[in-house]
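Give me the fold.
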Amino acid sequence: MEFARECKKVGNDFYKESNYDGAINQYERCLSLFDWLDPTDPDWKNKGIQDKLLEQKHYPPDDHNLSLDDVEEIEELKLTCLLNLSMRYW
């Protein structure tokens, strides 16, 4: 969580400095900690990545044992990063 918070903070700092590419990079980095794609083929390094063999993963998983406060903080981080990204593309 600390790393995600830091990514968002650095993104905000970049945005204030009009370094939009840096901000986008940091917001996307924060989001990638919670939502990502995993290859399902164990031999993907030799065969390459195929879209049909990717599975979307989320953190926290459905069977998590995190507190409600932690889950809410994750959702808030994700939402604010998405909103900040949308401001750049507006």
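The mean pLDDT is 92.
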